[in-house]
Each structure stands twice: as structure tokens, then as C-alpha cells.
Amino acid sequence: MNDALNHFRQQAASRAETLAAPDRLNEDWRYGRPAAYAAAVLDRLQTPPPVADEAVTATLAGPVLPGVSIQPLGKPEELEHLASVHSIGSGRILAMQQSLPVCGLCISIAPGCIVEHPIEITCTVRGEMGLLSPSILILMGEGSKATIREIHRGDGGNSQMIVGVQKAVLAPHASLSYELVQELGSTGRAMEIAEYRLAEGATLNQLTRHLHTEWARQETTCVLTGREARAELFSANAVDGSRVLDQRTRQIHSSPGAYSNLLYKNVVGDTATATFAGMILVEPGAHETDAYQANRNMMLSEQASINSLPGLEILADGVKCSHGSATSPMDEEQLFYLQSRGIPEEQAQRLVAEGFLHDAVVRFRGETGE
């Protein structure tokens, strides 16, 4: 282990000792069942299994470009970026994740480099009760452009867990399309902590999808630090059975004249639970901000549970901001239309639900030009 990695882990372990575990008094875990889920994550992080070889890999669909670097994490400046990641109520979990042997990649795109083909990162949890704690750092040089897709999956083992950290730093006028797809098995649990930082004129289009897992918590912080920075944040999820999805977001405007727009959509059925808690924060001096936040849910069962807590705090002038949420049952007129054309009821319901979620995916694809 090099000195930088050793110092990074020691500092994280020291932070973990000073931070409290999430509990029911932690507002950022409201409706999040910390006694059940946060405690389970912390317990697994206490005794992590060895990391399997090639647990985290990256591939480039096209030819390798001289301006693209994909390397294991380890340089001091890379670790400094990770050490500054902020969680949303899960500081102890983040610190413990970073105290483990570092498992992850740094993807660096040189200034002016246009990566025409997507980069795909695959993080694979292996074995029964397997645990993986990958950290992915993306450094976008000035005027660069890239599309990155990160997939988290298991190998079929029971009760697998992933505790992932993602950070992207976009220099002026950089452009990043970033998709995170979490697809552990039905007994898996996932915790994802992401932070995106956008300088002047930078553009981020981001999509998160959680599939299959018993429990997933996503914490996403987007910080717009430069004028004319632009962030589009999307999520589309179908939550059924007794699954639990917990989403927490922050859109932080610290510079004037930036734009952010968040749209999170969930279809929730059976006895599943979906929770969304978001905040738009317009800091002092961030005048002429445009910021929007919407959480839309389709409830398929009276036994399902949906909690939606959009938030807005404005400390500047001349801003355009809105936030809101809506929960409704499946549209009976759409069902009737499909069934009147010979489509069976179950298939019609599936098509309506898929169409509801597809809206967010299409908007992401449209923004990225894919």
C-alpha cells in the first residue's frame, strides 16, 4: 500500500470514530428505517471480505484515445477529491467505506478530448454475503466530453451488498453523460453516495436506475459552482414486492446564472416503499438561478407506501425555482384504451407503468443525444 492510500484510509477511520450512526433523530434518514438498514450497512463494513480480482473493470467501446486515462485510484490528488465527498446524513457510513482497502478507478478525460464511444464500468459483487465498496472518480478536463455508464451487479449469491461512492468533477465547459444502473439480486442491498461538481459552462446529464434489490438508498449531491453550469438529473424505478427505495438529493447553487432540473419517477406496487427527500439550496450571491425539482410516483397498490419531501431554500435574488411532488394511481383511461385494442389487462398495466418511467429515460437520452 502506498503512503497516500494509507493516509487516506487512516483519516477516514478517524472520521468514522467521531461520527454518529444514522438514527431516527437524523432528519436525512426520515422514513429511512436507520435501525434496520443503516445498522446493517455499518455491520457489514466492520468485517468486509477480501475483494475479488477484477471486481471493478472499465471498457471503452471504441478505440483507446490518448486523452483518456483509466487507472486504479491511488494518487494523492485523486484521494483528496474522494475525501471531500459529502453524504446526506450518512457520514459514518461514508467514512467507514473509505477506511476499507481502496477498490475503484479514476477516469480522467484530458482538456478538449471528445470521447465519441461510451465508457462502461462494471462493479461485481461475488459470493454469498458478498460485499463490494467501489469508489469511482471522474475528472473531466476543460472542454472535454464523455459518456459513462456504471453498472453494479452480483454473481447470483444471496444477501450481497454494495456500498458505492461516485464523484465527478467537471472543469469549465466539460460535458458528461453519466448513467448508474444498480442491478443486484432480489436479496441484495445497495447504498450509493454520489457527488457532482460543475464549473462554469459545464453540463451534466445523469440517470440513476435501481433494479431488483431488497433495499437501495441513493444519496446524490450536485454542486453548481460556475455561471451557466447546467445539470439534468433523472431517475426511473419500478419498486415491487416488499422492496424499499430511499432517495435523497441536494441541488446546491453556489454561483449565479446556473441551471438544474431534477425529475425522479417511481412505480410502486405490492407492499413496497419509496421515499424521496430533495433540497434545492440557492446560496447567497447565486442570483439568476434556475432550479427545478419534481418527484412523480405511480401507486399500484393500496398497501404500497410513498413518502415525498421536496424542499427549497433560497438565499439569493432574481431566481426561478420550483419544487413539487405528485402521487397517483394508474390511469384507467390508458388501461381501457389498451384493453379495447385486445391487449390483456396484465400486459396493459405493464405497458402503462413502463411508459410512465420511460418518460424520464427518454429525456435523459434526448439530453445526451443517444
UniProtKB/TrEMBL annotation:
Domain SUF system FeS cluster assembly SufBD core: 130-356
BP GO annotations: iron-sulfur cluster assembly
Xref: SUPFAM superfamilies: Stabilizer of iron transporter SufD
Transmembrane segments: none
A Pfam cross-reference name: SUFBD_core
PANTHER family (alphabetical): PROTEIN ABCI7, CHLOROPLASTIC
Protein name: Uncharacterized protein family (Upf0051)
Organism: Akkermansia glycaniphila
